[in-house]
Amino acid sequence: MKVLANDGVSQTGIDALEKAGFEVITTTVAQEQLANYINAEQIDVVLVRSATTVRKEVIDACPNLKIIGRGGVGMDNIDVAYAREKGVHVINTPAASSGSVAELVFAHLYGGVRFLYNSNRDMPLEGDSKFKNLKKAYAKGVELRGKTIGVIGFGRIGQEVAKIAIGCGMNVIASDPFIEKATIELSFFDGQTASFTIKTIAKEALLKQADFITLHVPAQKEYVIGKNEFAMMKDGAVVVNAARGGVVDEVALVEALDSGKLAFAGLDVFENEPTPAIKVLMNPKVSLTPHIGAATQEAQDRIGTELAEQIIKILK
C-alpha cells in the first residue's frame, strides 16, 4: 500500500510505516494535480498539514482512497463529514503538538513584554550608534508573573498554555462553552506533580479581567475577537493568536494597536494566509511568526508516529 505525505512527514513516521510494509512517498504534488496523482500512483493514504486541501472534488475523483490524515489538530482543510460519508477514514493528531503551540504562545508573550520583536530589528541597525537611546526606549518592560492570562478555548492546547502560565506564577482564567472545568496537572523534573482545577467563566468576563488573552479555538464563520471584544478589554491588554486565521478581526486589531488600546499582539496565524495583510505585517506592535505553532522537531516526531500508528491499525 502507498502513502502520499504531500506536506511532508517526520522520519519517525516514515520508518514506522515502512516497517509495516507501506511505501511512503514524500513528493509534493501541486494542488491541481493531486487527484490525478493519487489515481495514477494508486495512493491508498494521503497525509496533509495545512498547505494541501482535500475537498469534495478530490474525494469524488479518488474512489480508491482509504485514509486522509491531517498532521495536526484542525481539519478545516479537509471535507471531513463528506469523506466519512464516502467511507474514507479521516484521522488527525490532536494531542501531538499541544505543548509546542503553548510554548510558542509564551515565546510571543515573553518577547512582547520585553520588546524583543522590535529590539531585534533595531539593534543591528542602530545598536552601535544609538545604544543609550535604545536602552531607554526598551526600558519599560513588565513581568508576566502576577498577571492574569485569559485562555479562550480550554481544550488540549489551552490547558497546556495554562500549565506554563501556572509555572510562571500567573493567574489563569479560561472560557470555553463546552468545558465547565478542567484539572491541570503539572509534572516536574523530579517526579513530583501538582494539580490545579480551573473553572471556566463567560468570555465577556474574561475579556474584562485578563491582562493577556490567548486564543485556542477552531476555525469558525464569525470572529471570536472583533471590535466589540477589543472594547471590553483592559487598556494595555495583549492578544496572542496561535489558533486559526480568521478568529481575530485583523482590521479591528490594527485599530486597537494604533489607538493604544492594546500594548502589542502576537500572531502566528493570519486571515489571508499565505499572503497576510501588509498592515498587519508592518505594524510595529505585532510580534510575528509564519504559522509555526506545531513546527518543532519533537511535535513533528510525535505527529508522524501517531499518524503511522493509526494508519497501521486501520489498514493492517
Protein architecture, described:
The chain has 316 residues and is α/β, with parallel strands linked by helices. Helices cover 38% and strands 19% of the residues. The chain contains 13 helices and 13 strands. The chain has helices spanning 11-19, 34-40, 56-61, 80-85, 98-113, 116-126, 131-137, 156-167, 203-209, 227-232, 250-259, 278-281, 297-315, and strands at 2-5, 23-25, 45-48, 67-70, 89-92, 148-152, 171-175, 181-187, 193-199, 212-215, 237-241, 262-267, 286-288. The strands form three sheets. Strands 7-6-10-11-12-13 form a six-stranded parallel sheet, with helices on both faces. Helix 1 (11-19) runs parallel beside helix 13 and helix 5 (98-113) crosses helix 8 (156-167). The longest helix is centred in the C-terminal third of the chain and has 19 residues, at 297-315. It is globular. The mean pLDDT is 97.
Count of distinct strands? 13
Separate helix tally: 13
Point out poorly predicted stretches.
none
Q: Briefly note the structural class of the backbone.
A: alpha/beta
The largest sheet, given as strand count, sense and whether it forms a barrel, is: 6 strands, parallel
State the main characteristics.
five-stranded parallel β-sheet, 316 residues, alpha/beta, six-stranded parallel β-sheet
SSE inventory with pairings:
Layout: E1 2-5, H1 11-19, E2 23-25, H2 34-40, E3 45-48, H3 56-61, E4 67-70, H4 80-85, E5 89-92, H5 98-113, H6 116-126, H7 131-137, E6 148-152, H8 156-167, E7 171-175, E8 181-187, E9 193-199, H9 203-209, E10 212-215, H10 227-232, E11 237-241, H11 250-259, E12 262-267, H12 278-281, E13 286-288, H13 297-315
Parallel strand pairs: 1-2, 1-3, 3-4, 4-5, 6-7, 6-10, 10-11, 11-12, 12-13
Antiparallel strand pairs: 8-9
